[in-house]
Automatic annotation (TrEMBL):
It catalyses: a 2'-deoxycytidine in DNA + S-adenosyl-L-methionine = a 5-methyl-2'-deoxycytidine in DNA + S-adenosyl-L-homocysteine + H(+). Keywords: Methyltransferase, Restriction system, S-adenosyl-L-methionine, Transferase. It comes from the Bacteria. Gene3D superfamilies: DNA Methylase, subunit A, domain 2 (3.90.120.10), lambda repressor-like DNA-binding domains (1.10.260.40), Vaccinia Virus protein VP39 (3.40.50.150). Belongs to the class I-like SAM-binding methyltransferase superfamily. C5-methyltransferase family. It holds the Pfam family DNA_methylase. This is Cytosine-specific methyltransferase. The lineage of its organism: Bacteria, Bacillati, Bacillota, Bacilli, Bacillales. PROSITE patterns: C5_MTASE_1, C5_MTASE_2, HTH_CROC1, SAM_MT_C5.
Length: 448
């Protein structure tokens, strides 16, 4: 793998009177972000843009290559050093996906290999399996979630380890027969955590101690053909957008063409108003070699309601309201909330929240059969985010919760009731995961 020397490029820029990277990018006919990726330590430049760069600077490729070439595997410290590229200015809007594809007729040409980090109860992994991926390993620290994974897929390689330990020991010690660059997909949803910025330059070292840091390091260890990272919508505005911008920057510098979008589960056979941000990356050398472009899964054009998904649900245990709360919610009609209560009861039930104004439509909320569910949380009976059953005055039970998240009825949560709610509430809806998986399959199918 070859690497362009920024210093040598700058020397030749000076010879030709090119003073800025933006000016060079304009002459190349590419964006400044694309130029920064071209100069990234892990980008394979033996492709069209690099050849165009040689034409503009009137040099041979060898004249602007690093003296020492990068070797595999990459060390974690190297990743940290390389991420401090002050020349890369990230405009997150440049990475937002705008192109969609109908995924209904897409099928995998073969079984594609996948490793998942932060696997949880398997919503994402199950959806990817349905899309045509074969799991080679799932990293998850929570013992109850691991028990769920093993219960439902005894053949899966469930790695019940801390992500830090897996990173430090090397993923290849836990997953066999996957060479660097051979894995088809690395997937996972790391928690959204604040970074500690050391200075003006944004780099991976600012993310030390966060789960994104370890996701990025394992991405570097594996260099898969594609990756999928998913997170809460709030990531976009987290820390005034700096968190998200840094993630896009690091992914780009590792050597990926990245696309992101906020997707609605409601658009992909999920009866729930749940939104997730997805980031999909394709390794740059493959983008160049096969002229690849990622396209998002096109919304299906219809939306499911609770009436569609909660027919003939198997019996299961479920949480119950205390008598005081049940008495209040008995007064709320389907589709209603606290404003449908008598004023004196609403004041008593809501306390100080009554006087704070605003919508607060999640309080004393009873859902309707004719609407999708609001986003399910890890606890089915929180006062601020109530999701009362349309007919009965109770929270949804465990199997209803799973149906709303599009888990099949035979997916067993072998744990306590409260832990089952937590596992289901934290999961990526299975049908949404399948749709995203098929959009990635569409890319992999184009690689010969």
């Amino acid at each position: 793998m070859y690497t362009l020397s920024k210093e040598k490029v700058r020397q030749h820029m000076n010879k030709h009177g090119i003073s800025t990277q933006k000016e060079l990018a304009d002459q190349l006919g590419i964006s400044k972000n694309q130029l920064s990726m071209l100069l990234s330590p892990n980008f394979n430049p033996i492709k069209t843009n690099a050849m165009r760069l040689c034409e503009v600077l009137d040099v041979e490729l060898e004249e602007i290559l690093m003296s020492e070439q990068i070797e595999f595997p990459f060390e974690a410290d190297t990743l940290v050093e390389q991420s401090h590229d002050e020349d890369l200015e990230v405009n997150v809007d440049d990475f937002e996906g705008q192109d969609f594809i109908d995924i209904h007729n897409i099928t995998a040409n073969r079984k594609y290999s996948a490793i998942e980090l932060f696997a949880g109860a398997g919503g994402l992994a199950l959806g990817l399996e349905q899309a045509g991926f074969e799991s080679k390993g799932l990293v998850e620290f929570d013992k109850y979630a691991c028990k769920t994974l093993r219960k439902n897929r005894p053949d899966w390689n469930v790695i019940e380890k801390d992500i830090i330990e897996v990173t430090e020991q090397g993923i290849k010690n836990f997953v066999k027969d996957i060479g660097i660059g051979e894995l088809d997909l690395l997937s996972g949803g790391y928690p959204c955590q604040a970074f500690s910025y050391a200075g003006k330059k944004m780099g991976l070292s600012d993310a030390r101690g966060t789960m994104f840091y370890y996701y990025a390091q394992l991405l570097k260890q594996l260099l898969p053909k594609t990756f999928l990272a998913e997170n809460v919508r709030g990531l976009i505005s987290h820390d005034e957008g700096r968190t998200f911008a840094l993630m896009l920057k690091v992914f780009s510098e590792i050597g990926y063409t990245v696309t992101w979008k906020v997707l609605r589960a409601l658009d992909y056979d999920v009866a729930q108003k749940r939104e997730r941000i997805v980031m999909i990356g394709i390794r740059n050398d493959l983008v160049e070699q096969y002229d690849l472009k990622y396209e998002l899964p096109q919304p299906y054009g219809y939306q499911l309601t609770l009436k569609d998904v909660l027919q003939n649900v198997p019996e299961s245990e479920g949480a119950k309201y205390p008598e005081s709360k049940r008495t209040v919610l008995d007064l709320v009609p389907p589709g209603g909330y606290w404003r449908d209560l008598p004023d004196n009861i609403a004041m008593q039930y809501m306390g100080k929240s009554y006087y704070s104004g605003g919508g607060r439509t999640g309080m004393a909320r009873r859902l309707s059969w004719e609407e999708p569910s609001l986003t399910l949380t890890c606890s089915p009976a929180q006062k601020q985010t109530e999701r009362c059953h349309p007919d009965e005055t109770r929270p949804f039970n465990v199997r209803e919760y799973a149906r709303i998240q599009s888990f099949p009825d035979d997916w067993v949560f072998d744990c306590s009731m409260n832990n089952a709610y937590k596992q289901i509430g934290n999961a990526v809806p299975v049908n949404m995961a399948k749709a995203i998986g098929l959009s990635i399959v569409n890319v992999l199918n184009q690689m010969k």
